[in-house]
Specification:
Its main location: other. By secondary structure, the protein is mainly α. It has 27 helices and four strands. Among the domains are: about 220 residues, Leucine-rich Repeat Variant; about 140 residues, Leucine-rich Repeat Variant.
Length: about 575
């Protein structure tokens, strides 16, 4: 995406502001933070040796937010997200029980010394000092262990690689150079669930923030192996690792088409739908919340792909239906701010609403004009701003699909029930990424000058009373959320019949923003340009209301920043 240039504060022509949530790494925690969480987990349950820390990707964002395609997009976001796990083996998994092996002793030492004693004692003081408790082998030996016929050697090698790639970023490329990635992928094809978990966790670490390793996994036919194991395995821990691995892979643009084509249908059918929509046929298919969380993070990343990929995703059976159902269920439970799954789901809807009218024109053929009439105007003064030349025109539309009682698929993206859901989230969620995703989805639906955008704006402001939940976001301390909310208000201000209501709720907030503009903000912040345009539009529409809200501080701020802008032009 190219950065939008600052528009002149005198411009009256507004651009079609749309948004898309991109993968982001902004919210990812450091290695030491993740280790400290693992220590706490071990203290709670010494017998559970699986590292369960989860790193939001963006957005999702989102995600995570560009164009906004937030981001969230991750995170999300927007990427993006990674559960780095240190899985370990049990001696019962050894195929050769008649004689002790070096690998058995190494694995036992690794489990007992590293994961229990040192994680509790050494890592609490200094995460990096735990390396001395690892088996005394080299990375090359660990990679060689992966091809050994003894499962204990394979487990030892995979566990060592998993740990090293978690604590030392540089080892990721070394594992790639030594050929460790294809060897780990081969372990996904074994019959041992512990090998599955450990190999998947090691691959997950290798793919985390390493673009070349993501592509190497694909080059070695790793995606096919991952999906085959995900389809055939019933082990929850394995599912956690595989979906986390897919989440990390999904932030690579080159892999998105393949993942959308092959992984999305499987993830939707086996995870998203069963977890979101409980029916008599799937009540026994218990999906772990972390698996659903990882899956929605992966889908969130995929949803900010190209136009063709977005069209494919919108047509995925039950995907959009399940996402909306899950959000609504969490709202009914009073839990709009769960771990991050609601945020991921809203970011996906945000991205799938991007350029919706252009990419799915068949959805909007039934929009028709019911009535176009000027509003009554009692002031007939020739020189009044409310003279007949500037009378506000009210246009009403008929669009049965928007009011459909049982929407399906793409219809959910613009249905009245979804607008109500966004409105409810904006009034109840405390998570800024979720609020931004809601604003971004509405921003996309109101972006053009078409009948659809007008209808969406009218519905949200007049039927749903949406301004009270949007206006406070205009002065948010989160610049990304503020920018998205301001763009949404800018889009809706194009509808002349709404300007009277907007002047009362929006003008004070816009005035506050422009009263506190600094010279640095005016040089780079497109939010200021949008705010100036909104203020100009509302002042022309409602001069009497606007006059009462103009303060000396506002005038001084605008004057100073106009001088800054003039200097920039010269």
């Amino acid at each position: 995406m190219t950065v939008e240039p600052i528009r002149s504060t005198l411009a009256t022509v507004s651009t079609d502001d749309t948004s898309l949530v991109l993968p982001t790494d902004k919210m990812q925690r450091t290695g030491q933070q993740r280790v400290l969480e693992q220590v706490k987990s071990i203290k709670r349950n010494k017998s559970k040796m699986v590292k369960k820390d989860s790193i939001p990707s963006p957005t999702c964002k989102c995600a995570v937010y560009m164009h906004t395609c937030v981001s969230y997009n991750n995170n999300n976001n927007n990427n993006k997200n990674n559960n780095n796990n240190k899985n370990n083996n049990n001696n019962n998994n050894n195929n050769n029980n008649n004689k002790p092996s070096l690998a058995r002793m190494l694995v036992w030492q690794y489990l007992k010394t590293c994961f229990i004693s040192k994680f509790k004692q050494v890592f609490m003081a200094n995460a990096s000092s735990a390396e001395g408790s690892l088996p005394n082998i080299t990375l090359q030996e660990a990679v060689e262990f992966l091809s050994n016929s003894d499962i204990s050697y394979q487990l030892c090698g995979a566990s060592f690689i998993q740990h090293q790639t978690f604590t030392e970023e540089s080892t990721k490329q070394e594992v790639w150079r030594l050929g460790g990635i294809p060897a780990l992928i081969q372990l996904l094809k074994s019959d041992n669930s512990q090998l599955h978990q450990t190999a998947a966790a090691a691959l997950r670490n290798l793919a985390f923030k390493d673009h070349s390793n993501k592509l190497e996994v694909d080059h070695c036919e790793g995606i096919e192996a991952i999906l085959t194991l995900l389809r055939n395995s019933n082990d929850t821990e394995t599912h956690k690792q595989l979906t986390g691995l897919l989440w990390n892979l999904s932030s690579a643009d080159k892999l998105k088409p393949e993942l959308i084509r092959n992984a999305l249908p499987l993830l939707t059918e086996t995870i998203v739908v069963p977890y979101s929509v409980w029916t008599d046929s799937n009540t026994n298919k218990l999906i772990d919340p972390e698996v659903f969380y990882n899956t929605t993070g992966c889908v969130r990343n995929l949803s900010c792909a190209s136009e063709d990929e977005r069209i494919t995703m919108r047509s995925c059976p039950q995907l959009i239906d399940s996402l909306v159902t899950y959000i609504q269920t969490q709202m009914d439970r009073g839990e709009p701010d769960d771990k991050q799954s609601v945020e991921n789901c809203v970011c996906i809807l945000h991205n799938l609403s991007y350029q919706l009218e252009t990419e799915a024109p068949e959805q909007f053929k039934q929009i028709s004009v019911l009535d176009t009439r000027p509003k009554e105007n009692n002031n007939k003064s020739l020189f009044s701003p409310k003279s007949s030349k500037t009378q506000k025109v009210r246009t009403d539309f008929k669009f049965p699909a928007m009011e459909k009682e049982k929407p399906e698929g793409v219809n959910w993206l613009y249905n009245q029930k979804t607008l109500q859901l966004y409105r409810s989230l904006l009034g109840s969620s405390q998570k800024e990424a979720t609020l931004e995703a809601c604003c971004g989805a509405l921003q996309n639906l109101t972006a053009s000058k078409s009948s659809l955008s007008t209808l969406m704006s009218q519905s949200f402001i007049e039927k749903l009373n949406g301004l009270p939940v949007i206006s406070p976001l205009l002065i948010s301390g989160n610049s990304s959320l503020q920018k998205t909310a301001m763009s949404l208000v800018g889009n809706m201000s194009r509808v002349s019949s709404l300007r009277g209501a907007m002047a009362k709720d929006v003008f004070p907030m816009v005035s506050s923003v422009l009263s506190n503009v600094t010279s640095n903000m005016i040089k780079s912040d497109s939010t200021i340009a949008t705010a100036c345009r909104v203020m100009q539009t509302l002042m022309l529409a409602e001069p009497e209301t606007s006059k009462k809200m103009i303060s000396p501080n506002l005038v001084e701020s605008l004057t100073e920043n106009s001088c800054v802008k003039e200097k920039m032009w010269h």
